[in-house]
Write a structure and sequence with these properties.
Blueprint (H helix, E strand, L loop, with lengths): L1 H16 L13 H7 L3 H17 L10 H8 L3 E3 L4 H11 L11 H21 L7 H26 L10 H4 L7 H18 L16 H14 L3 H12 L22 E5 L1 E3 L2 E3 L3 H5 L8 E3 L12 H6 E5 L4 E5 L14 E5 H14 L3 H14 L8 H4 L2 H16 L5 H8 L3 H5 L17 H6 L12
Antiparallel strand pairs: 1-5, 2-8, 3-4, 6-7
Helix pairs in contact: 1-3, 3-6, 3-7, 4-18, 6-7, 7-9, 9-10, 10-11, 10-14, 11-14, 14-15, 14-17, 15-17
């Protein structure tokens, strides 16, 4: 019944908010509609839940073959495209070969959907702020949750496209001609949004009935730790990740590798529930990646299994092997469900293992090599591997940095863009991708701004990313 109410209300909120193919064309709610949507705490909360309903309806967030995780895994060294039919096959080949153009239709929805989420978050923040019809505490919490989702959207915008327009209001006339902001400015806004969320969101999962499908203060802390890592704020990254790792009441590494991605497991920090109509269904990752015989869509690069050390339980649990009688192929199987039901899996966006890796890397960068190794060893032992507590190794920070990168690869592959972003932020994209991708060029590290955006926004008409 809660699920039905959630989506009935959220659907009304989405209808009120409207939808449009291009973010810059979205018109604001008229006064009557806005007064209805934010008339009281219940209707305002419905508008907030509408943000999650929108994410459920948008392909880039749902773990499918149009999702951020799928696209970035093709862009990196994780997946190989086998789909060749029609325009979709051609554009997937461009994505896999890092030869995108501004007119590649396949990736335009990524920009559009992220900015649609930004717009909807802005509208909620505007609608509840200084609204006398909503209790102050509830308004602050709703604005904080919307700010988290806006920060989440901008994290992906800045990592996929670099400089992007920093839109913080709902005036479509201003938004339609907004120039691209600096990367530092975008990250500054993300940090501000996440701190705001961290301060006002609850530190439990009570808002979602114990499920981990809505953002709370811990989700904000986990994403903030990642942002600090990406921006080189090592001490801040260490501090935020340590908070999550040390919270052993809510979070724990799954002892059984096979259970890491199950619904509401203690390793998950934030998951996205998937719905068909008003019924919850499994996330689609299992259906997207698992196959038998010759791949019809995508498969892991044939050298990918070599990245795992002998005896690594993650290889056995998270990589499947099949054959067409002549050749062998490998595929990700972190998610096991290949049908909608029975319900076992949500798409895990933030999880504890990443926080261990953030903490280990931040400590390494701060010269705390012994502490970094101790954190890394906890993940390795969970994977059935031996420790690396070696005094000689401990003195070699360069070696340890490489080891952390290796652990990030085998722990986080095909999840939400981690590998693609790691190669870029550690300046290893050219080294890793040039030998395996004949058309690789350094400028491919950013996706092109969609052509329709350049045409629609005069402030960006001559401001395409380099190389496009």
């Amino acid at each position: 019944m809660k699920n039905k109410v959630f989506f009935s209300i959220a659907s009304l909120a989405l209808s009120a908010l409207g939808s449009c193919d291009r973010f810059m064309d979205v018109a604001p709610l008229n006064a009557i509609t806005k007064a209805n949507v934010f008339a009281d705490e219940n209707t305002a909360n419905a508008a907030l839940l509408g943000l999650y309903a929108y994410m459920n309806a948008s392909g880039i967030f749902d773990g499918s073959g149009t999702s951020i995780g799928f696209f970035t895994a093709l862009s990196s060294d994780e997946l190989v495209n086998y789909y060749a039919a029609g325009q979709l096959g051609q554009e997937r080949s461009q994505l896999n070969g890092n030869s995108l153009t501004a007119g590649t239709a396949l990736i335009s929805p990524v920009w559009n959907s992220l900015y649609q989420l930004v717009y909807r978050a802005n509208d909620v923040i505007d609608g509840v702020t200084d609204n006398p019809a909503i209790p102050a505490g509830a308004a602050e919490r709703m604005a904080g949750e919307a700010a988290f989702l806006r920060g989440f959207a901008y994290f992906y915008l800045v990592n996929l496209y670099g400089r992007v327009p920093l839109v913080l209001h709902t005036d479509y006339r201003q938004n339609a001609s907004m120039p691209r902001a600096s990367i530092a400015s975008v990250y500054g806004q993300v940090i501000g949004d996440l701190k705001r969320a961290q301060e006002v969101l609850p530190d439990d999962y009570g808002l979602s009935g114990g499920r981990r499908t809505r953002a709370n203060a811990w989700a904000a802390t986990a994403l903030l730790a990642r942002v600090y890592l990406y921006t080189g704020a090592w001490a801040a990254a260490e501090a935020e990740a340590r908070k999550v790792v040390e919270n052993q009441t809510l979070f724990a590494l799954s002892v059984d590798i096979q259970s890491v991605f199950l619904r509401d497991g203690k390793e998950s920090i934030w998951q996205l529930a998937r719905y068909s109509g008003s019924s919850e269904i499994n996330s689609p990752e299992g259906r997207v990646f698992i196959f038998s015989g010759k791949p019809a869509s995508v498969a892991l690069r044939n050298t990918f299994p070599d990245a795992f050390e002998p005896g690594d339980r993650r290889k056995a649990a998270w990589i499947g092997e099949t054959t067409d009688g002549e050749s062998s192929y490998w595929y990700p199987c972190k998610y096991k469900a290949t049908a909608d039901l029975p319900l076992t899996e949500n798409s895990t966006v933030l999880r504890l293992a990443e926080q261990y890796l953030i903490l280990a890397e931040a400590k390494c960068r701060l010269g705390k090599v012994g502490e970094s190794i101790a954190i890394l060893d906890e993940l390795r032992q969970r994977a059935g591997l031996g420790t690396i507590r070696d005094p000689l190794v401990a003195a070699n920070e360069e070696w340890l940095s490489g080891k952390i990168a290796q652990e990030r690869l085998v722990e986080l592959f095909t999840e939400w863009g981690h590998r693609w972003f790691d190669l870029k932020r550690t300046e290893r994209a050219d080294e890793v991708l040039a030998p395996i991708k004949p058309r690789w060029k350094p400028t491919a590290q950013l996706y092109p701004i969609p052509e329709n955006q350049l045409l629609a926004n005069p402030a960006m008409s001559d401001d395409q990313n380099e190389g496009y």
